[in-house]
Amino acid sequence: MDKISKFSEEGFLSEAMLKSSKEFGQQYYEWFSLGLDINKFSIGQSQAIAYHPDNRQECMASALFLRTISLFEGIIILLERCMTNEAKILLRALMETLFTLRAITLETKVAEEYYQSNLKLKRKILVSFKKLSPNLVDSLGKDLNEKIIELDNLIDKNNKTGDLSVLYLARKANLLDFYTTAYAVLSWTVHSNILDVGAAHMNGQNDTYIDSIQLKVQVEEVEKWFMSTFECMVIAMNAINDLFKGQLEQDIVGYENRYKALYQSFRLKRTTNTG
Prior knowledge:
Blueprint: H1 7-10, H2 16-27, H3 29-47, H4 56-80, H5 84-106, H6 108-132, H7 144-158, H8 166-172, H9 176-180, H10 182-190, H11 194-201, E1 202-206, E2 209-213, H12 223-244, H13 249-274
Antiparallel strand pairs: 1-2
Helix pairs in contact: 3-4, 3-12, 3-13, 4-5, 4-12, 5-6, 5-8, 5-10, 5-12, 6-7, 12-13
């Protein structure tokens, strides 16, 4: 019989992780069950959307909603595999998508800004290419200077483009509290901040002496990442429901109440066990 690969040998891809994942799934069964319910509901909601093909706001909102769903699914899969740090990276991406989705559903002006923002992005990329390869041409034989001039003319003509920063979109989405709290903390993981890297991979008695550096399973207080993920999806579902007048408010409130009650229950158990 072949030996089951150990975590120390193959990390999160090891067969040993299947046992840990199963145990973790049982411990957080209610959270995963709720995640499956929210996922199924949001997919059904996306399939019921009747967007108008000539309406940019509706089309972009529909596409962004699908992005939130796929990111949500990715987070659940990673949490199931006990890869909490990696799930946090996707959660930050989910929040960025949520900022954009909510902002463009609230204001058609922001939706148009978002659509037109690709012009400045293309120009920025071409300027970078020009610095490296000044003689580069595109598939039509136009040199970079011609392309940049064309984009400048389009930008001036539309006069609706801007550098749509994450902060700008968070403000427009009325989600600045998310940006200044959870999003900021999750950025530590994305950018490999020493605070996050140290907590994930270093063991020691203090900052000046490190006993070991290792890859390890991260499942501490994972319910708060479940909570944030579910909260993002509820906001996303409400955004789409408001834009398309889906009349699903009560269903969405039901999911919100479920994750809040679940979180309170887990926090109470944690306090009782440590008290």
